[in-house]
Amino acid sequence: MKRIITISREFGSGGRTIAKQVAENLGYAYYDKELIEEIAMETGFSKDYIEKRGEYASGTNIFSYAFIGRSPNGSSIEDQLWAKQQEIILHLAEKGNCVIVGRSADYILRNHTDCLNVFIHASTEKKVKRIVEVYGETDVAPEKRLRDKDKKRAANYRYYTDRHWGQAKNYHLCLDSGEFGLDGCTKIICELAK
Amino acid sequence: MKRIITISREFGSGGRTIAKQVAENLGYAYYDKELIEEIAMETGFSKDYIEKRGEYASGTNIFSYAFIGRSPNGSSIEDQLWAKQQEIILHLAEKGNCVIVGRSADYILRNHTDCLNVFIHASTEKKVKRIVEVYGETDVAPEKRLRDKDKKRAANYRYYTDRHWGQAKNYHLCLDSGEFGLDGCTKIICELAK
Which molecular function term from Gene Ontology is one that the record holds (chains A, B) (predicted)? Predict the structure, then answer.
């Protein structure tokens, strides 16, 4: 039985919903916004700031903080946040059975053998349909919203882990949610966690 | 029910064995060496030559054939072989239920909705153990044998499909055979094909 399940996901693939369902089905703790809150409390950063920076920050942003955002030891706010996230995720993994969404948890917990690392993706067509249904239309074309968000996730992951985001070898299991459906993916993950 | 299952795999991951087991379990035709033979017969290339070139040729090799290996219309032997493989895979897919290993079949059949595309991978440690068990030791270190073979597969795939090999989004399902075992992977694929 896997004690920890990490779920990485493309924006619009329904990975967060699947993660929530998996946590419910298995009776596991679920960490996502909750995780952000915990980081926010510990670091004193505002919740909004962390939500934007925590997962989407890329190495390039560091330069814009060169003068205004450096601590006395010279590390950027992003670097401090990364270190803090790492610490908290390791702590949560010790605490008990859980499902963790995003935040490069697959990499942070790479040495944990009781961890199942999952990646959820879908075709652009399916993701466009989903984000318009779930989040509604905006001034920005849905294809561009998808691209922008995942580009930032990929850059952040690449910068801090030196791996390529969405590469099958980083995960035990990768699923196309457009093919299997959200409930189908939930079922597969729950069965394989056992 | 999926009529066609394509299995792409890292060298040493046991993907070929899994494919064979899936074909047996589902009562599907299995194409791998058989496919090569068919190509060989149709094209008149020797079987050995195709086995080496069919999947491992990369774009860069084309230059070495610039003078000795071009047909009157200017396409290289690799290009002709790629076109022929494509033709044969499309034909096999029409013919009946089947499992096809490698040969970029996931890309060639990308417009077939009755196709389940699978990628099998494993950690270097597990793959090293497996290739030494299955193929024995050679003068070349197993890590290098793994790297060389997959590098060629990746280059070939990239050249002809313009996609990145081993990227989760190219497949409906990616499995770590070191995590789930060969029999475990076979079971998952058979269940999801239904």
Answer: kinase activity
Position B157 confidence tier, pLDDT thresholds 50, 70, 90: confident
Average pLDDT, chain B: 84
The distance in angstroms from the start CA to the end CA of chain B is 4
Other C-beta atoms lying within 10 Å of the C-beta of residue B109: 20
The answer to whether the CB atoms of B167 and A172 lie below 8 A apart is no
Average pLDDT for A173-188: 97
**What domain range is B22 assigned to?**
4-193
- A21 has pLDDT over 50: yes
Residue B156: its pLDDT value, please?
A: 84
| Interface ipTM | 0.84
Q: Which residues contact B67 (CB under 8 A, 6 or more apart)?
A: none
Decide if B121 touches A, using CB distance below 8 A: yes
What is the count of structural domains for chain A? 1
Number of residues that make up chain B: 194
| Interface check A119 vs B, CB under 8 A | yes
Average pLDDT, integer, range B154-160: 87
Question: CATH number of the domain that A58 lies in?
Answer: 3.40.50.300
The answer to whether the CB atoms of A166 and B167 lie below 8 A apart is yes
**Distance from the A120 Cα atom to the nearest Cα atom in chain B, whole angstroms:** 9
**Strand A115-121 and strand A173-176: pairing?**
parallel
Q: Give ∠ CA B165-A167-B60 in degrees, rounded to 5.
A: 30
Q: Please count the CA atoms within 13 angstroms of the CA of A182 that sit on its side-chain side.
A: 15
Rounded to an integer, the average pLDDT of A49-63 is 55
Instruction: Count other Cβ atoms within 10 Å, centred on residue A84.
Output: 18
